[in-house]
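Attaching the record inline, Q. Sequence:
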Amino acid sequence: MARIEHHIEGPNGSEIKLVAQECFGSGLTRSVDVFALHRASPDQPWRLLDNRPDPAWRSMSVQDYVQTGRSEMLRMVSPAQIMQLIHRLNALQYEDEPIQDVDVAPADPVQLPVNRPRFA
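Structure, as predicted:
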């Protein structure tokens, strides 16, 4: 399970730690969990930012949604920063692995050639 972090420092001394973590579910299905932590100053503890939008977000105007309806995480961190972190996490998978040739089978198994040894 891979995990990558990105620290963002604000102009007022506040900090945000953006974390992307690779998880595996049943059947080894890969998913990526992203969360953000915030602290007002280096001497304060980290606090998890909420990732849920305002309960009334569907009835808000676009301008109200942008100002108050977004989740706390999306008000502090941009979607571009989240995507960059996920991209870096995906790139970690291929750094240490050599590129290998892969044989790709035809989509229709009927077209596979039959190579059977002949016995005399």
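The beta strands are 3-9, 15-24, 30-39, 47-48. The first strand starts at residue 3 and ends at 9.

More tomorrow.
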